[in-house]
Amino acid sequence: MKVVIIGGVAGGATAAARLRRLDERAEIIILERTGYVSYANCGLPYYVGGVITDREELTLQTPEGFRNRFGIDVRVGQEAVELHPEQHTVTVRRLEDGSTYALHYDKLLLSPGARPVGSNLPGEDDPRVFTLRTVEDTLRIRAYLDEHPVRRAVVVGGGFIGVEMVENLVHAGVDVTAIELADQVLAPLDYEMACMVHQNMRAHGVDLRLSTGLEAIEQEGAGLTCTLSGRVKVFADMVLLAIGVRADHALAQQAGLELDIKGSIRVDEHMATSDPDIYAVGDAVAVSDFVSGEKAVLPLAGPANRQGRMVADLINGREASYEGTQGTMICKVFDLSAGATGNNEKQLRASGRAYDKVYVHPSSHAGYYPGAETLSLKLLFDPASGVILGAQAVGKEGVDKRIDVIATAMRGRMTVQDLEKLELCYAPPFSSAKDPVNMAGFTACNVMKGDLRQIFIEDLKDLDPEKDLLVDIRTQSEYDAGTIGNAVLIPLDSIRDRLAEFPKDKRVVIFCRAGLRGYIGYRILVQNGITNVYNLSGGYLTWEPVYGAKNKSCGGGKTTRIPKEKA
Ligand code: FAD
């Protein structure tokens, strides 16, 4: 069996190594266009920022290493330029001298990844305008930083590559303007969760401009002038374009293989293309979204690796099928982490799926043990069955663990009722006896059982002082430090003595800092005959990053302010 693999990084290298483990006699050839194989794409931003200092660390394997350990023929600097499925051959170009040759295969794997999307703007060819995908790109950026006095950079695009590059350029001592066309960074998060990330980026000195596009790049003296939406001009010594990636379908298209959404390669559940002897994996293919079942392109390293491994099994006659991608992701944003799994609210709304949601903001570990940090967790679930549809978390500690637990639960098609029962590891330095994941499960179950009725921050704009009373049930000092609109203060511990102040002819909307005291207040009120009560899910901690603190202009519960982020 002769297997040719096009692309020698996440999907391709994984497939090659497993192929060898399963079949000692197979002839395995990897064609890789760049000069490196099995490199750590995900680590590249950290080399630019000087966090990873040894460039050898970026290349997990060398062609020699592959040959010695796995007996795999890795041909770097060689590009597959044409596929001939009927003849089972690939035309390969040696980039060093442009010479070509034909290579026969029995089975072919395409793992060509994706290419950075260009801006199509004049000026993008300037050598001070960069994209980041390969080791070569990384070395180019690092060399530019080392050889030039780079004081200001513009990073275009707020996806995870853009955001990681913002952090790393700041780490390298550069003032960064980050621009994003959407009203938020990190699309897997919903807007209100992303606002926590925006706050943190700005707190670290990033000039973050949302709902802003790049309109022109022009040379100006020794630097570049970027024209942004509204003809605003920003000067930069360098520009990084991170406006997304597009599945690399060039070879598949040339070979007449079927394509799918967003120019990706169509594959079945066995990662086979429309030619049964050609498989495709990774960023280049369309997968099914694990939650919705709809077609999706989700360029992430984990899925690429797993698909590569699976194809090796299939080539060796084993049974396997790919069961969809959840989009589980995490991104470090300075001292904050933002993670997500499954569908977010935007996706659920777009696909017309019924959902409910809860927000909790518990401590990452026992509050009395030093170093505990607030962890903001949003859980989305089916309101009828409780099946978990997605989760997002933002915080300084413990985000990865909670998203991983929920991602695992989702794979098992578990429900919020199951989250209540999860027995997770606990000692004070690590968690609480009721882990944040349990807490999210408890809260969701309270909602499903009717023990708690919720209102959300986006609903506050509809409050009418004639019909609604907004009550802050935190303490006087918390209230003085900033409340929502014209909320009246009735601290939780005084509610039983002040029941008369809660009108029975109005809807009562209560809120606290994180939602937990609100739940207690809710239970007190409804059991004392004040039944038209709603608790603001996630409380002030969900509201504040979106609408801003210390602003009482929301008026008698009529929160008509434009969100700070959108102003
Ligand atoms: P790749 O790993 O990109 O490999 C494709 C290879 O194929 C490339 O080296 C390319 O040169 C080669 N190739 C393409 N066409 C040809 C051809 N015709 N002939 C020969 N060779 C060819 N994902 C995460 O999950 N977490 C992260 O933190 C994360 N961080 C990232 C940071 C950066 C800067 C980048 C660029 C990506 C990051 N990703 C991350 C995404 C992740 O790296 C990709 O999802 C994953 O590498 C995709 O694997 P792949 O095999 O499909 O493609």
Structure description:
It is a single chain. This protein is α/β, with parallel strands linked by helices. It has a 5-stranded parallel sheet with strand order 5-2-1-9-20. The chain has a 5-stranded parallel sheet with strand order 11-18-12-13-14, with helices on one face. A hairpin with a 2-residue loop joins strand 15 (214-220) and strand 16. Helix 1 packs parallel to helix 8 (301-315) and helix 6 (191-203) packs across helix 15. It is globular and about 90 Å long. The N and C termini lie far apart (62 Å). The relative contact order is 0.09. Residues 550-567 have low confidence and may be disordered. Bound molecules: flavin-adenine dinucleotide. The site of flavin-adenine dinucleotide has 32 residues, from helix 1, strand 2, helix 2, strand 6 and helix 8.
Cα gyration radius (Å): 27 Å
- The total strand number stands at 32
- Judged by helices, strands and strand pairing, the structural class is alpha/beta
Distance between the termini: 62 Å
Reported for the largest beta sheet, the result is: 5 strands, parallel
Strand percent estimate: 25-35%
- Taking all residues together, what is the mean pLDDT? 95
Give the low-confidence spans. Answer: 550-567
Number of helices: 15
Quaternary state of this entry equals single chain
- Ligand types: flavin-adenine dinucleotide
Strand order of the largest sheet: 5-2-1-9-20
Q: How much helix is in the residues?
A: 25-40%
The shape is globular
